[in-house]
Amino acid sequence: FTSRPPALRASSGMAAFIDIKGIAANLQLYQAGISLSPGTRYRLSFYAKSNTSHDLSLDVLQHVSPFTNYGWSQRLANLTNSWQYFQFDFTSTNTSTVNNARLRFWFPSYAKAGDEYFIDSVSLTKL
User: Fold this and answer.
1) 65 has which bridge partners?
2) What does the DSSP 8-state code read for residue 90?
3) At a CB cut-off of 8 Å and minimum separation 6, what does 41 contact?
4) Distance from the Cα of residue 106 to its chain's centroid
5) Under a CB-based contact definition with an 8 Å cutoff, are residues 63 and 99 in contact?
6) pLDDT in tens, 17-31
7) Chain centroid, CA 101 distance in Å
8) Dihedral (C-alpha) 20, 23, 28, 29: value to the nearest 10 degrees?
């Protein structure tokens, strides 16, 4: 993972660039330490593309074992080789406030060696 042009948004000039060199069982990009309120609606939005139109999936789960699903598991982002906007809404299933959630972009089920992914403008907001 690196950041590089071409970003979708001119304000940043950079996007997350994931260059798949080989496939592994645990190939992921994630942000940990996310706080989630119980039973709350959230919206995840982002832009993405891949050079081969191979997809990726996303999860919101506990960052450490047992990796409890916090309301969203294996949501498919159906990518193309052009920028697309994705917006997914979910309700958190945790019963108390948590500070250990992970937003995970998951590649193994879809990616092949030589794939290039771009991800930009990721946002997780309460509705």
Assistant:
1) none
2) E
3) 89, 90, 91, 126, 127
4) 7
5) no
6) 899 988 877 888 899
7) 13
8) -10
